[in-house]
Each structure stands twice: as C-alpha cells, then as structure tokens.
Amino acid sequence: MESYQQPVQDVLQDLTTSAQGLTSAEAQQRLQTHGYNELKEADRDPVWKLILETFKDPMVIVLLLAAVVQLALGEVIEAVIIFAVLVLNAVVGVVQTKKAEGALDALRQMSAPSAKVLRDGVKQTLAARELVPGDVVALEAGDFVAADGRILESSSLRVNEGMLTGESEPVEKHTEPIPGESALGDRKNMVYSGALVVYGRGNFVVTATAEKTEIGKIAGLLASAEAKQTPLQRKLAAFSKKLGWVILALCILIFGVEAFRVWTGVETEDMTGALLKAFMFAVAVAVAAIPEALSSIVTIVLAVGTHKMARRHAIIRKLPAVETLGSTSVICTDKTGTLTQNKMTVVDSYVPGRSEEQYTEDPEQWSVSERWLMQVAVLCNDAHINQDGAELGDPTEVALIAYSNSKKQPYAKLRREFPRQAELPFDSDRKLMSTVHTIDEQRMLLTKGGPDVVLARCSHVLVDGEEKPVTPELLEGIRQQIEEFSDRALRVLAFGYKPLFTSGTITFEDEKDLVLVGLKAMIDPPREEVFDSIEEARKAGIKSVMITGDHKTTAQAIARQIGLMEEQDIALTGQELDDLSEEELDQKLERISVYARVSPENKIRIVRAWQRKGKVTAMTGDGVNDAPALKQADIGVAMGSGTDVAKDASAMILTDDNFVSIVSAVAVGRTVFDNIKKAIAYLFAGNLGAIIAILFALALDWVNPFNPIQLLFINLLNDSLPAIALGMEKAEPNVMRRKPRDINEGIFAGGMMKSVIARGVLIGAAVIVSQWLGLQQSPEMSIAMAFTTLILARTLQTFAARSNTQTAIGAGFFENKYVLGAVLLCFGLYGLTVLPGVREIFSIPADFGWDEWKVAAGLAAAAVTLMEVWKLTPWASDKK
Ligand code: ATP
C-alpha cells in the first residue's frame, strides 16, 4: 500500500518511527543504509581532459607548430622545453582554476538548504542532506520541502508543486488517507521534495530521500552547476578574440615585410632562411601578445574576493554579483533586523478609556481590558521561551510573551488553559494573525496585527470592559495614540477579538467585525554600526532606501535616527505609491527614502523605477513573497535567517542579516574589480613592452630580441605570480569615496588604457636601448641583454601596478606581502635562467657578465622609476 492510502499511524509504523521523530543514533544508522539525501551531480570533466582541452587553443597550436619547426631545425632541447612549458602551464592553470571553483562551490554549500527536523524529540535545524526516511520535518511558509513524505499535521499548509505537476496554484494539504489510486497532484496528504511551502504550517514524516524521491526519479542527476561568467570575464573573452585577429594581422605583416626584403634583395639569405626568420618573429609576437595566464588569474582573484566577502558575512551565490556589487548605486533595504537589531521589547501599551493615572504595572490591579490585552497577545502567538531562556520564534511575538512572563503571568499557563483550536497564520501581506480558543465557554477568534489593519476591521472597541460601537471620537483617540507611539520609533501592534458562533475551520472572511482591545508598543533599537555605514554608502555615491512593512511614522522616525532620511527626503506608504503614476514616481524617486506598509508588488515597482534610471539596485528580502523582487533586482540580497525561497532567488546571502555587511561587500566588490584591473593592466603593459621591442627590431632589421622559450617563461611563469599578488592588493584609499562604476564600462576605462600604454612604452624603450647596447658587442649579447631587461622590468613593474593613484612607497611599500614575495620569487626564477647549463637554453652567452647585467638591470629599474614619476604627472590622473 502507498503511504497516501494509509492512515498516519500505519505510515509511521511502517517506517518504524513516531510523530516525535527518530533518535539521533537511529538516524545515523539509517544514513548508513540510505545515504545522503542529495542528488548526485553529473560528473564534471576530469582534470586530464581539461588539460587536453587547452591544447585546442589556437595560441597553443601556434606554439606547438613552433616547437615542430625547432625540431626540424635540430633544436631538440628548445622544442622539448616549449612542449614541457605548455604542459606545465596547462596543468597549473587547470588545477588552480579547479581549486578556485572548488572554493566557490564550498561557499555555495554554505547556503545549501536546511530542514527543521525532530531528533531526540527536539526540533533542530539540519542540512537537508542529513534527512533519512522516518524523520519528522516541520514546514512553514518559505521552506523548500527537502524530501518526500506523508503529512502528519497541517495548519492551512499550502504547497506549490508546480515543478512536479505543472500546476501553478498552491495545493492545500491535509492528513486524511486517500483511498484508491491517485495521481501525484491529487495526493493532498503528501509533500514532495523540491516543492515550496507558500502558506501555513505543518509537518511530515519522510518516506523517501535522494534518488527515491519523485523528483529524483525524474532528474536522476542534478545538472552540474553552470559556472556563470562575470561581465568582466565575458568582456575579456571578447577582447581576447579581437586580440587574436590583431596578432594574426601582425604576423601577416611580418611575413610581408620579410618577403618584401627578399624580393627587393635587401636580404641576402635564401628564401627558406628568410621565411623561417619571419616565422620565428611571428611566433614571438604571438607568444608575447597573448596573456596566457589571464583567465585563470581572474578566476583566482574572484575566488579570493568571494572569500573575503564571506568573512564579512556576505556569501556570494552568483559569481557575477562580485562585480555588480562594485557598481551598486542604490540599496533598498528592509528595516526590521537589517537596519535594526530585531530585539523587540514591549515598552508601552494602551487600552481605550484608560487614563495615564490609572495605568499600573501591577497585574493584580489590571482592568478587564488590560487582562484581555495580555491574553490575546499571548494566545494569538507562536513564540516560545525555553526553560534555559532560549527564545524561539518571531522577535515581535517573543517580546509579547517575555513581557507577560515579566509580569508574573506565565504565558505557558495561559496557553495550557486555553488551547488553540484553529489558526490563520501571520503573513506579511495581510499583516494579521488570528487564532481560535474557547474562553469562558465561548469560542473566540483572537486577532493581532498592524494597528491600521486591525482598526479597519473593528466594529467595536472594548472600553472599561464594555464593548462599544466604534465612533469617530474613539477612532480619533486610538489613531492619535498610534501616531504618538510611532513618533517614538516604536513598533505598534493592535489586538482584537470576536465571539464565533460557528464551529470548524475559519477563513480570512472571519477577520472582521472585531472588538478592539488595545495596543502594545515595542522598541527595536537600530543596529549600532548602521549610522556609519549609511554615511559611508552616501560618500560612495550609494543611496540607501528603507522598504518596510511597518507603520510609516515608525519607519520615518527610525530612518531619521540612523541618518537614512535627510531633511528634503520624503516617505511614502505602499498605498500612496500605488496612487502615483509611473511619471510621478520617476519624478520623485530620488527623494523617496522610506517606503512603509509596502506589499511585495510595491518592491518590484521600486526596483524597476530605479533600473529605469540606469541605477544598479540591490534589494534585500527574506519572505516567500520577496522572491520576485529579489530576482528583479540587480543584486538580490537574502537574509541568512530568511526563507529558502528568498535565498534561492538571491545573488548574495547575509549571514548576519546586517545592512552593514552589504556596504562592506560593496567595498570588497569595488576592490576586487580594481585588483583584477590592476592584474590585467600589469599583464598587458608587460606584453606591450615586448611587442614594441620585437617590432622595433624587425623594423631596423636587428636580430629577433626574444626566442619563444624566453617569452613563454616570462608570460607563463614569471608574470603569473605578480598578477595574482596584485589581486590581493588592499583597497585604494578612495575606494568608498568615488561614485559607483558604470556597469557597462569597458576593461580599459578609468585611465587604465593610459597606464598600460605608458608602462608598455617605457618597458619597450628600455628593452630597445638594452638590445642596442648589446648589439655593440654581438647579436647574442643583444638577445641576452634584451631578455634581462624585459624580465626584470616586468618583475619590477609589479610595484608600479599596485596603484594607479599612489606610488609604491605612497601605498606602503611593505603593505602587500604577496607582492614582495612574488617579486622575490621572480628574481629567483630569473636567477635560474643564468645558471650554467640552463643559460644556453635561454640564449644567454657565456660572456654575459656582471657589467652587462648591471646595464640591463639598470635600464629596467629606470623604466619602472619613470612609471612611478609618471603617476605624479597630471596626465596620469585617473578620472573616475
Ligand atoms: P520589514 O519589512 O522592515 O522587515 P516588518 O517586520 O514590519 O518590516 P513584516 O514582518 O512583513 O515587516 O510585518 C508587517 C507588519 O505586520 C508589521 O509592521 C506589524 O504591524 C505586523 N506584524 C508583524 N509581525 C506580526 C505578527 N507576528 N503578528 C501580527 N502582526 C504582525
């Protein structure tokens, strides 16, 4: 018999479990038998296959061709070395990229779904992969269902199973057995892995996990997560393609020049010799120009950036967000918990008809109204405080029961006395919650919610224990009180009740004709660091906008307290927003700092309005209904404490729910982008220097200053280390004082082109001078000197590449230890090339001694010094 056909008790028995769930020991044992509750990822390509893939690169093919030509010329060692270096590069590149990807995967794991499971009779949050058949799992709105199971309890539990049934309407679940055969979509007492709880609460016993679940049967394997590229990576790929064409054109030009020389008789060599020479020049240009290590360096720097963000409580789920963060112009943020501490404390209350003087803290002397107020607050409430003082549930509700406890009115006692019979759970759209209890032998609906919402549904007011019809005067008095509390930045809740004369379930229709009992006001202090953070964002050209479900006056008061709302700014309610046309909204948008009493649809409209103005917008959210707005935003930011649905829709998760973490993630995002650009500029400037020297030699008919091995050695080994080290550079001092970067900005924007050219020309010039000096002795000496100047200038360029605005000394010479380490290692690498036995491979003749070295090195140092001097000139200024 299928689980859905059986009564709950039989299902539990079949699974040898109970409604209290399994013990940890039993669960552990079942885990051994059933395995983890996860679908296996499709195998990724093994490393060796990826390494082979790199040999498809046209660039690598050219080099292999060069190796073959060398082989044909009898230069066996050279050929072998080219081949070895290519293999080494492929291995290092693939392994490093794999490692960086692994690190990103690990981060993604941190935001993997969890499940609230009963183990040893205690509710605990575990990773969803730990679930085993027999586990009892609790569900509430916003949860993903983590395994298949039979419903044990349902309180208006509604689940969207569209991914399995194609049905977009949520299905209400119940616990009764369903006789006979029924289709998946009709099994209303079951839930299936991957479904989404959109409303209500309930729990289920797990009947199947992993591949045995319905979704597992269909999917079998989880498609391996596609590694999405960031905009910059895409731009770089496009740029590399263009670069390829330029290189091809250059190579053709070189052949052309050589052919012309042979034809005009300038060259005395035979045709084959000339062509061979042209070929080696062309290869040199190709090797010199292509930044072989670039893409793995970018991946590594991005991975380092995401790690840094994770340490600052921001977990990146979608890699492009690292970059987009740096362009963020607007942060739309929730209030409760993000800007405030979400630590509510009841500080005041109000019951109509009670004067200030009558108010007493002593429950013994409370009026009927005050007793009712306490009763509704505690009964229409899901929060708990454990024996050890641990608070469970919504902080707003915890505050109410904590208050009751503090008045020696233990909430648990009241709940035992008047057990709950039915409920309409809280949701942030209705801003209401209701429960049903029998009190003094009368079935009663108790309701609490936003004061305006409750008030609108009241037909009576309890005044001195007497139900009186609502009058304009009474209403006015209550409204004034709400405003007075809200002005003090307090969160206000209103409480009401109504006798029910029906039995059975209740619907939203019942939440009307209520009797208003009173109000409670609670304080939720702003997070301490928020004030500075909003100021920091403002200086960085980022506007912070508060979007809250709370009352307008409360929201406004807090916004002013934390400096989010300035003098000329305005606050709107969701209702007022609905009344604005798109044009009116566009006109006012920049001045609106606070949106109160908003609905999820309002959130989408706000994001779209900012996007119309071309602003990159980050938006926070935590609830089920926030998902569409989180998807719409350029950067959806989910709260760590939020629902699975919200997390799934977001690009970033804040583990501490804190606004401050968004701003620090922006700072890291900007720095990561800066650093990637520094690494790119470093690589391109070095390559440009080499190309200039090669073309110059070609034009003057000098010997080719570099052979492919030298260039490969520099590009693949020597340059990679400093480029990665530059990726670790700390933030530029002005990182949070400049305007957000334009998201469409090209790679070379912001003065980068100028510095690449300036530094490339300087390196090129130094190499040319060095080669010319070498030529005075011999062609061999000219190659040795050109190589020495090039490699040392490129190594030393690391210092110049550290900042576009500061000199290496100004930026703190010893600040970036990675740079120092990389430069030292590069010196070591260079040292290897002049060792006896090795130097022949690098075409360094035996008579290249200290004197020549000093000249070559001196030229390199001079070039780099000039690069630093260049920074001090007005031409270098990097207008952002
Ligand atoms: P933010 O959107 O900044 O997080 P919020 O916490 O006020 O603000 P919601 O949790 O959606 O947003 O709550 C919306 C409104 O519903 C609150 O302002 C309050 O009036 C009311 N409310 C909040 N919690 C409850 C609750 N547990 N029961 C009844 N009403 C509530």
TrEMBL record:
The keyword Transmembrane helix applies. One of its GO terms (biological process) is inorganic cation transmembrane transport. It is a multi-pass membrane protein. The keyword Hydrolase does not apply. One of its GO terms (molecular function) is ATP hydrolysis activity. Residues 2-75 form the Cation-transporting P-type ATPase N-terminal domain. Keywords: ATP-binding, Cell membrane, Membrane, Metal-binding, Nucleotide-binding, Translocase, Transmembrane, Transmembrane helix. One of its GO terms (cellular component) is plasma membrane. Gene3D superfamilies: Calcium-transporting ATPase, cytoplasmic domain N (3.40.1110.10), Calcium-transporting ATPase, cytoplasmic transduction domain A (2.70.150.10), Calcium-transporting ATPase, transmembrane domain (1.20.1110.10), HAD superfamily/HAD-like (3.40.50.1000). It holds the Pfam family Cation_ATPase_C. The chain crosses the membrane at residues 59-92, 243-266, 278-304, 680-703, 756-775, 818-835. It is found in: Cell membrane. PROSITE patterns: ATPASE_E1_E2 (PS00154). Belongs to the cation transport ATPase (P-type) (TC 3.A.3) family. Type IIA subfamily. This is ATPase. It comes from Rufibacter radiotolerans. The lineage of its organism: Bacteria, Pseudomonadati, Bacteroidota, Cytophagia, Cytophagales.
